[in-house]
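Good day; I would like, with your permission, to put a structural problem before you. What I wish to show you is a protein chain and, alongside it, a tokenised description of its three-dimensional fold. Here, with my thanks, is the record as I have it:
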Amino acid sequence: MTSSTAPILAESWLELPDGRLFWLSGRCALGRHLDNHLILEAPSVSRHHALLTPEPAGYLLSDLRSSNGTYVNRAPITRPTLLHDGDELRLGDAVLRYRCTRRPTVDPAITNPERTRRLEDVREAACWLLIADVAGYSTLNTELGGKAALQRFQGWIAGMRPLIERHGGHINSYVGDAIFAWWSGESAKPAQVRAALAAIEQWRPQSPVAFRVVVHHGSVLFTRSERGEELSGQEVNFLFRTEKLAKGFGASAMLSEAAAQSLQLAGRCPPLGAASVEGIPGRFVFFAPPPELGINTSAG
């Protein structure tokens, strides 16, 4: 079945129950019949169950009078519903997750005070934070063209996601050409984060794009929404702003001092240097992961 010529939201996709990613490129019909764009074989899914339609604001999900209903974040939908990054979609017994890259802002991690006041479930907890960012995506886009660059970006996301999640990490969002992930300080172990870093580096030679990784540790504000937990606070701001410093240091992998200490790597990490972080008082020391983790610290 061929896609329509509707406007394309190229960086939107569905996470399928078996872990695969289904990239959206226009109108997408979902159901059990073979003429759907995405075929879901669960008996509880109708032959023609639901429809995703691209609009300037994002994708709209519509139920096609299915037998068992279509749900967004466990609420049944009765009219076309605009989807947001992280929304859980349920078609019969089939559970999917809608993901899309969020537009970068001046400060992507600042808390929305109005939203916070409306939500009661707000907590503060320590965690490890990771940002992985494609290096030179604009140049790649210019050299290869938009379609080829996008295919590489999609391959990078598909490769990175399991490396983070298999080691206890949670992907909070995709911001621009970056992945923002975290590990709970309450349930995750330092060894899991170290293992994720090692796995990412082992995969790096197969990555379709060059990329940088920065890890930090600190206390974060968790705000629960219908799509999961949103992270905010100064430590999140710190992480996003230090990604530029990694580029300046010429490092493909970088740890903050807090990350090095919390990962039990203090005294083993080669120093990269000290620098100021925009909007945060003081100067901060940054490190490369130790060689025994198998990480090549040069960005190349």
Observations:
- The chain has six helices and 19 strands.
- The two ends are 42 Å apart (CA to CA).
